[in-house]
Design brief:
Number of strands: 5
Number of helices: 6
Strand order of the largest sheet: 1-2-3
Distance between the termini: 31 Å
Helix content: 25-40%
Structural class: alpha/beta
Largest sheet: 3 strands, parallel
Order of helices and strands: EHEHHEHEHEH
CATH class: Alpha Beta
Radius of gyration: 14 Å
Length: 133
C-alpha cells in the first residue's frame, strides 16, 4: 500500500493515519518533493526540506519504507507507484482528490479513503490549523 503527503508538520494525526492504514498491509509513505510541495501549497512551503520530512516519516513504526516523490502535481507519486507496485492507495478525507481516484482506477489500484479520527484521548490535528494559515 502507498500513502502520500507533504508531512511538513508531522503530528499525531499523521501517525494515527499510518497506524490505521498499517492494518491493511505494508505501508510505503511517499513524501512530496520540495518543488512539488511549493507548487501545490504555495510560497513558504515546505517548512522542512524533503530529506528531513522523509527522515521523520521513516521513524514512525507503522511505515515500512519512506521515499521522496519524483513527479509533479497531485499524482507526483506516479513514478514511485511504478517502482513499489502497491495494490492499494490510501488517503484521508483531506487528501481525497478526483485525480487520485481516477489514477487508481486507470492503474488497477484499490482507492481507500479513511475518515480523520484522532487516537482515543488525543486532540484532532491538522497541519493547516497548527500553522495558522
Amino acid at each position: 500500500m502507498v500513502v502520500t503527503g507533504c508531512f511538513d508538520w508531522l503530528h499525531s494525526g499523521h501517525v494515527r493515519f499510518f497506524e490505521e492504514v498499517s492494518a491493511l498491509g505494508d505501508v510505503y509513505v511517499v513524501v512530496g518533493i520540495d518543488r512539488n510541495v511549493r507548487l501545490l501549497k504555495g510560497k513558504g512551503h515546505p517548512l522542512l526540506p524533503q530529506i528531513e520530512r522523509r527522515y521523520l516519516v521513516q521513524s514512525v513504526r507503522f511505515g515500512t519504507q519512506a521515499l521522496v516523490s519524483s513527479g509533479t502535481g497531485w499524482m507526483d507519486v506516479e513514478p514511485e507507484i511504478d517502482q513499489i507496485k502497491p495494490d492499494i492507495s490510501a488517503v484521508n478525507e483531506d487528501g481525497n482528490q478526483p485525480e487520485k481516484h481516477e489514477f487508481c482506477q486507470a492503474h488497477g489500484l484499490e482507492y481507500v479513503v479513511l475518515k480523520r479520527q484522532p487516537k482515543h484521548g488525543l486532540p484532532r490535528r491538522q497541519s493547516t490549523h497548527l500553522r495558522g494559515f
